[in-house]
Amino acid sequence: YSRAFSTSAALKTVIKNVTVIGGGLMGSGIAQVAAATGHNVTMVDETDEILSRSTAAIERSLGRIAKKKFADSEKAQSSYVSDAMSRIQISINPVAAAKKSDLVIEAIVENLEIKQKFFTTMDAAAPSHTIFASNTSSLSIGEIASATKRRDRFGGLHFFNPVPMMKLVEVVKTPETSTDTFQQLVNFGKALGKTTVECKDTPGFIVNRLLVPYMMEAVRMLERGDATAKDIDTAMKLGAGHPMGPFELADYVGLDTTRFIINGWAAKFPDNPLSNPVSCLTN
Ligand code: 3HC
């Protein structure tokens, strides 16, 4: 890696070895898609037990995709699954994983202090060419990056649940993200087969800035007694063509994550009515 320490060499780095931190819904989805598109992936979480659940979920999801992709060949289905699985390693040691990574993608709990602490540790361990990215839904990438000395090699890669099916990745640029880093993140998103959009580091980027207030407005509508949850969901599916209604979607994203997002925004932007907390998610 000696070449990679200079800026010009960093330009040429092609992301091949990826560490995904967090084996939850998002982390395992990101690990799956990265492996299925030929990247070497290390998926990290706190225990082997969590990681074996994550790998089982990945294997199931790959199987569903393989059935559609290679409908007429069981052999092709099983080699699609086993090829992707063979590119995924699991680890409970993020520092060791970071040492051989071109890119570290963090998908852990939506808490600024925990993310900052994590990245400070990773910053000391990872090679200098390694790019850091967070999959945060709602926190500032710049604030997370401020816990490291590689703010130029730090950006956002925001994926959507279910990661294997959703075609979008938001690529987030802070004022300090270098042009090379941003371009590499965009290239990586495309290498995963996703469409990328460029976002500034603003709360919720594009999708969640629109989607979360919409879900919260649905909850307020329910709390006022204007309509039932079932009717609100039906209305948005049949009247606006959404694949899921707002309540179904909040469940699908996870009420824990939805709550972290809205409570975080309510505390940080108390004067913005879009981030008003809703009573059924505040406790
Ligand atoms: N893995 C692999 N394949 C999957 C899958 C998964 N996890 N989920 C769905 N599929 C595929 C399968 O091919 C499945 O067919 P199968 O059951 O025969 O295997 C096919 O999709 C159809 O799935 P379903 O019949 O279960 O249901 P749908 O047709 O409704 O599709 C959906 C499921 C793609 C999840 C669709 O309902 C949808 O797009 N929902 C909205 C999701 C959304 O808005 N996500 C964004 C949330 S916001 C977010 O994530 C940001 C965060 O920061 C909060």
Low-confidence stretches: 1-10
In total, the number of strands is 8
Order of helices and strands: HEHEHHEHEHEHEEHEHHHHH
Number of helices: 13
Give the integer mean of the pLDDT values: 94
The largest sheet, given as strand count, sense and whether it forms a barrel, is: 8 strands, mixed
> What compounds are bound to the protein?
3-hydroxybutanoyl-coenzyme A
Helix content: 40-55%
Strand % is 5-15%
Strand order of the largest sheet: 3-2-1-4-5-6-7-8
What does the overall shape look like? globular
Structural class: alpha/beta
Calculate the terminal CA-CA distance, rounded to whole Å. 49 Å
Radius of gyration: 19 Å
GO biological process, one term: fatty acid beta-oxidation
Domain 3-hydroxyacyl-CoA dehydrogenase NAD binding: 17-202
Binding site for CoA: 61, 68, 137
Pathway: Lipid metabolism; fatty acid beta-oxidation
Q: Can you offer a commentary on this structure?
A:
It is built from 13 helices and 8 strands. The protein has an 8-stranded mixed β-sheet with strand order 3-2-1-4-5-6-7-8. It has 283 residues and is an alpha/beta fold. The N and C termini lie far apart (49 Å). The structure holds 3-hydroxybutanoyl-coenzyme A (3HC). 3-hydroxybutanoyl-coenzyme A binds at residues 61, 64-65, 68, 137, 160-162, 164-166, 208, 211, 243-244, 249, 253, 257. CoA binds at residues 61, 68, 137. Residues 17-202 form the 3-hydroxyacyl-CoA dehydrogenase NAD binding domain.
